[in-house]
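Session log. Operator J.P. requested a structure for one protein chain; no other inputs attached. Running the standard single-chain path with token output.
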Amino acid sequence: MAMQNGGRPAAGLSGDVGRSGARKAVFPAAGLGTRMLPATKAQPKEMINVVDKPVIQYGVEEAVAAGLTQMILVTAARKGSIEDHFDASPELERLLELKGDTQTLDQLRRIAGMAQICSLRQQRPLGLGHAVLLTKAIVGDEPFAVFLPDDIFEGGDDPCMRQLLRVFARFRSPVIAVERVPHQDVSRYGVLAVKEVEPRLYQVLDMVEKPKLEAAPSDLAIMGRYVLTPEIFGTLEQTGTGAGGEIQLTDGLKALLQQRPIYAYEYTGRRFDCGTKLGYLRATVELALDRPDLGPDFRRILEEVLGAGGSSEVAGGGAAPEATG
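Structure written below.
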């Protein structure tokens, strides 16, 4: 296990978030990234750049903005570049100092100091539930967050994890981020049967992993953010292998439903699935357009490309779907 020190709690958090008691965030990052081959043949999928940052950095920044201060990376062989990215780089910093590039130097120092990073290895690909279980000794007896790095959540001043932590502070029970998906897509997700508590907030009654269309209990699908309590470790230890011979986090949560309530929150904001090629392209375009330093020029480039190729032809050949998959 490796550890890097640094980071401070985020300022300006609401009282509810501060009372959640959560400090640690788990990032399962041991997957092979087969959906993004050949780009992931020799580099971790979590290190693929979206505009000018690796995708995992977006998740760490969201965690820091929500007040979490310790990031636990669950990696695998040949993924050391993830830890390196969040470490200091004295030689590179000296070079930037000599060049007088203070803006880039400040960015690198902010990345290395934004949070405390520790990492451990998942030596065999035994699933998301197994990756979470590996963190038991580090998490200890306290609530914690789970971020699936493939997903970028864009929520402005109120990121998705901050929304979940507010719900957790009220109910002191696990909270899952959910999104309504088109009915024809429910078989791609874990889908929930729920009872509405208030607008956007639900109590979970059951979970079905990748149901058939006719068996889906709702159109509320589990997305890549969770706030969990340490009881999940006990249920995961008792959970057998499920789909693909892996220990599924959804199966552990389903068992936990027998012990305590679990809530689902329909978050506000945008989500980009950067584990698919179209989702990655959409994230790159939309987030680049959002940037004041890049957006205006990039928009002109897109208009030139669309104009040169014929807008109807380009749209028909490769327009990305809504960022839900």
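Operator note: The longest helix spans residues 295-309.
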